[in-house]
Specification:
- This is ABC transporter ATP-binding protein.
- With 299 residues, the protein is α/β, with parallel strands linked by helices.
- The protein is 32% helix and 28% strand.
- It has ten helices and 14 strands.
- The chain has a six-stranded mixed sheet with strand order 6-7-8-3-9-10, sandwiched between helices. The protein has a four-stranded antiparallel sheet with strand order 2-1-4-5, covered by helices on one side.
- The two termini are 33 Å apart.
- Bound molecules: adenosine-5'-triphosphate.
- Adenosine-5'-triphosphate binds next to strand 2 and helix 1.
Length: 299
């Protein structure tokens, strides 16, 4: 079943085409990421899918319903994460989420349960202004989920968090999807998209350049594998003599074997008792972005 059906979606701001003829489908239960640098058009695309912004061209169907003009039947079925800056001022975390809950006719006990679920039980009496960046992001996610929507939109949920806080939030985001909800998030972070998402739409200059699983995107690159053998285990000459090895380099971490036949090369290393301390590196989404756009990824 399709959760989101987008056809030929376009949005212009004067001369600028922020979203340029985007077509995509998202299945029910999928976790989809929209990945792209600043200004790629991610937020504009999401806002049109959420029914918050009117497209100049194209159509959006969400859970089988048209989103524009505003469709009140959809509101209880979708959750949109607000930026932390849009909290009601001077409320505590508990008051904040209970206020959201009451808008949807959801009881206080359920609201309080969500505070616990996102790890904010001990911050219930803290005013939203006094929460840390990570706590505020978790509260905004809880507010988006409090009415148990089928489809959740998160716009850069881990922006401005330190690496540890981002990782903590990843567990929460995975659990949202594990319970069967469809999740769409935008992100600047390649690693985040790679770890969390079933499929990733790589976006730049308003266009979706590719939309596939992270593994398929990387496979499509046809990038060679780099196998690094710990220093001292193997000379460059020995490495070059292994069948299937293309280039050989020497770096601080040892001898680097570049190959398109990693299984054969690893087999040869195993046979020679050289597997200790071996690292294997394939392409990443960063390489995908570089290959698609011809430039380095700059968040
Ligand atoms: N209301 C607006 N009026 C004019 N231009 C806009 C408006 N909103 C966005 N833009 C422009 O449209 C382009 C796409 O912006 P958008 O916010 O969708 O990108 P984004 O990928 O979400 O960026 P970021 O990662 O920085 O949030 C940008 O060049 C932006 O300056």
């Amino acid at each position: 079943m399709t959760a989101i059906h987008v056809l030929g979606l376009t949005k212009r701001y004067d001369e600028l085409t922020a979203v340029d003829d985007v077509t995509l489908d998202v299945g029910v239960g999928e976790f989809v990421g929209v990945l792209g640098p600043n200004g790629a058009g991610k937020t504009t695309l999401l806002e049109m899918i959420e029914g918050l912004r009117r497209p100049d061209a194209g159509t959006v169907e969400v859970l089988g319903e048209a989103v524009w003009p505003r469709n009140p039947r959809l509101q209880p079925r979708i959750g949109v994460q607000l930026q932390a800056s849009s909290f009601f001022e001077r409320l505590t975390a508990r008051e904040q989420i209970r206020t959201f809950a009451s808008l949807y006719g959801v009881g206080a006990a359920t609201a309080d349960g969500w505070l616990e679920r996102v790890g904010l039980g001990d911050k219930a009496d803290t005013r939203v202004e006094a929460l840390s960046g990570g706590q505020a992001q978790r509260l905004s996610i809880a507010c988006a989920l409090v009415h148990d929507p089928e489809l959740v939109f998160l716009d850069e949920p881990t922006a401005a968090l330190d690496p540890q806080a981002r990782r903590n939030l990843w567990d929460l985001l995975s659990s949202i999807n594990d319970s069967g909800r469809t999740v769409v998030l935008t992100t600047h972070y390649m690693d985040e998209a790679e770890i969390l998402c079933d499929r990733v739409a790589v976006m730049d200059h308003g266009r979706i350049l590719q939309f596939d699983t992270p593994a398929a995107l990387v496979r499509g690159l046809d990038a060679p594998t780099r196998i690094t053998v710990a220093p001292g285990a193997l000379t460059a000459a020995q490495a070059g003599a292994i069948a299937g090895v293309g280039e050989v380099g020497e770096g601080p971490d040892g001898v680097v074997l570049v190959t398109r036949e990693p299984a054969a090369v690893l087999g040869a290393l195993a046979a020679g008792q050289h597997l200790d301390g071996v690292t294997v590196q394939t392409g990443t989404l960063e390489d995908v972005f570089l290959a698609l756009t011809g430039r380095e990824y700059r968040a």
